[in-house]
Design goal:
alpha+beta; 2 domains; 6-stranded mixed beta sheet; 3-stranded antiparallel beta sheet; 14 helices; binds glycine; binds manganese (II) ion
Length: about 450
């Protein structure tokens, strides 16, 4: 892609800083793993959104007049022999479309000149360790010279505010990248399902890491840089641990496997969950719960469209799940009452304890407010029926075309008194990625089937 899109985003941000505002944004820090080994570097998402630049040790400065300055690692042939190519400040303006570029070693020296005469300094609050004290240092040295006529910014503003709003609605380029990421991840889920059935049919021992390796292979084979988050490959009862990670547990004939995995492609995440029978055939109780979760997902999908609230899909899912829990005897109506009681008292929480979705974008739990900005002042209070805590309710975000969210209901049945034994230790989640459209939503992750019969069919192949 040309740099035009990034220039447009910088211009759109500059217009929100005020004519005398200045924004300062570092990329992510490099992080040591142990001794001489670093964690694989991953750029900061805000920084990438405005530059498309993936090198470490870089800063972006944007001023209210629309000018942008990049500070980046200087060319250094000796270091480049060890660490790889650097763009360098000389090539950066032509390559990235910034107005000026300097070595990052000049950042402190240049900052006084950049800050002098500005009225507001914008930087991301509480996201980059040590950034606040760095800003304090720059402001302090500017203030030390006020007797010589420098003018220090009087306002500090959170840069996440305007950037979160911009990132919440994905442009066509972002949507296309997210479609490709979801397509790759869907293919990886199919391969993992098929491998499980094939190995069990062949009498081989299957471990969670076999399926994890299959996912990774498919991600990388299609050019994904890395998984968008630690893949969950949870066999049997492990599926009831919400943040379980792929480990060494055996994948047993007769049990379900829950895989929550998605690749990151060119800076954009995908996030898919499928739950399938390890051997390719659902048992009766497994299928009953699976169909219930799927029906709840379909109810959520049906209400995901422009003009709906972010919480509408969750409420639609909960209604279907709660009724199903009563119908299947997981909740006893004599104890918990009617459907309305189950919802109001959150009795379903024993089996469904998370929300039905989140924003998806550069970050798997993407930025963006969940409260409708035009209604922040509308606050009501309610008492949480389980914890007794008083919770402030503000109107949930109204969905707009181009927003991207996950739709991921689930049920997690831990053994407990009164819970029919046939459902014990079953954990099911079904998660798809949806782009909100005017008429509904586009599910970009359905390259992997979701109907129980279709999953069984592809696992026979
Ligand atoms: N994979 C993280 C999530 O589903 O939210
Ligand atoms: Mn998710
Ligand atoms: Mn997920």
């Amino acid at each position: 892609m040309t740099f035009a899109l990034y220039s447009q985003r910088r211009a759109a941000l500059a217009a929100q800083l005020g004519p005398k505002g200045i924004a300062i944004l570092p990329t992510a820090p490099e992080q040591q793993r142990n001794r001489d080994a670093d964690f694989l570097f991953r750029h900061d998402s805000y920084f990438y959104y405005l530059t498309g630049f993936t090198e470490p040790r870089a800063w972006l400065v944007i001023t209210g007049d629309g000018k942008s300055t990049l500070f980046c690692a200087p060319k250094d042939l000796e270091r480049e022999i060890w660490d790889g190519y650097r763009l360098g400040p000389e090539a950066a303006p032509a390559q990235l479309g910034v107005d000026a570029a300097f070595s990052v070693t000049e950042l402190d020296a240049q900052m006084s000149g950049l800050l002098d005469g500005r009225d507001a300094i914008w930087y991301p609050f509480a996201t980059h360790k040590g950034l606040e004290s760095r800003v304090d240092g720059w402001l302090g040295s500017l203030r030390a010279r006020v007797r010589y006529g420098t003018l220090c910014p009087e306002q500090q503003r959170d840069l996440c505010g305007p950037l979160d709003e911009m990132r919440l609605v994905k442009d066509p380029y972002e949507q296309a990248t997210m479609r490709r990421a979801a397509q790759i991840s869907a293919g990886a889920h199919i391969r993992a399902m098929q491998l499980s059935a094939r190995m069990l049919r062949g009498g081989q021992e299957v471990r969670e890491y076999h399926l994890d390796a299959e996912l990774l292979h498919e991600f990388r084979r299609h050019g994904s840089q890395y998984p968008a988050y630690g893949s969950i490959v949870a066999a049997g009862a492990n599926a009831c641990v919400l943040h379980y990670r792929a480990d060494t547990a055996p994948v047993r004939d007769g049990e379900l496997v829950l895989i929550d995995a998605g690749c990151e492609l060119d800076g954009y995440a995908s996030d898919i969950t499928r739950t399938f029978p390890a051997n390719g055939k659902f048992s009766g109780p497994q299928r009953a719960l699976y169909e219930l979760v799927l029906a709840s997902q379909e109810a959520a999908i049906a209400v995901t469209k422009t003009g709906a609230r972010f919480t509408d899909p969750h409420e639609a899912s909960v209604k279907v799940l709660a009724q199903g829990l009563l119908d299947l005897g997981l909740l006893d109506a004599n104890k918990v009452g009617t459907l309305q009681d189950v919802i109001e008292k959150r009795a379903y929480f024993q089996f469904y304890m998370h929300r039905t979705g989140h924003w998806l974008g550069m970050d798997v739990h993407d930025c963006g407010g969940y409260i409708e900005p035009s209604e922040v002042g509308t606050v009501s209070e309610r008492k949480d029926p389980l914890s007794g805590e008083v919770i402030k309710n503000r109107p949930s975000r109204i969905l707009r075309a181009g927003m991207v969210l996950t739709i991921e209901p689930g049920l997690y049945v831990r053994p407990a008194d009164g819970v029919p034994a046939q459902f014990h230790n079953i954990g099911i989640r079904i998660e798809d990625d949806a782009i909100v459209t005017d008429s509904g939503c586009e599910l970009i992750s359905r390259g992997v089937p979701v109907q129980a019969d279709e999953i069984e069919a592809l696992m026979r192949e």
